[in-house]
Amino acid sequence: MQNAPLHGKTALVTGSTSGIGLGIAQALAQQGADIVLNGFGDANEIKTLQAALMRNYGVKCVHHPADMSKPTEIAAMMAFAAEQFGKVDILVNNAGIQHTETIEDFPVEKWDAIIAINLSSAFHTTRLALPMMQAKNWGRIINIASVHGLVGSVQKSAYVAAKHGIVGLTKVTALEMAHTGITCNAICPGWVLTPLVQKQVDARAAREGLSDEAAKKDLVSEKQPSGEFVTPQQLGALAVFLCSDAAVQVRGAAWNMDGGWTAQ
Could you say which protein family the record assigns here (predicted)? Predict the structure, then answer.
């Protein structure tokens, strides 16, 4: 992978043992970046993921199981990445959880957990990554927000608040780094068929007596004019672009990939 554009770079992707995070990790590895995976899951399955990334793309890959709701574990993960590779060049803040409920019935502990994992964790990884990036005057921070960083939806108060916060954090980080070789941008996906979204599909199918396919179609077509899910591979390709020299002046963007959701 000597001729790969990201050869010699290290990418840390939070929440990358499945879904969007894994798709982005694979896309970055394909371009030659060494990978730090993060996330929960079966230990043997995670080892299989690591082995596949190393075998398929000729990169190094390690895993750290930091709980992204805990600042001390985040700090340990960032130190681990520095020990393993000497630096973090590309930081992708992707870890996230969801809970749906009206505001008056929203469990306080769920609110706290969503804000911690979906928003505060990105602050902690960013503050710890920036000195490593500043030492090299090169870095790419990509925050996985959501269309819910741009618009609201009912029963998603914590998620929408956190994702709007991520977009705001992205802008401030970009402005503070504006005279450096470090960029920060947010990607705002619409519906992506991740394990998180499949749970919503399952709930709809059960509630309305629909097949899995019918529930998927109903869910997507409610908000996403294309009627199609965004894929982790498409998001990975956008992340690769944001890491490229062509994107050096893309700074502080909230780039929606949402099948037309926010165009309405």
Answer: Belongs to the short-chain dehydrogenases/reductases (SDR) family.
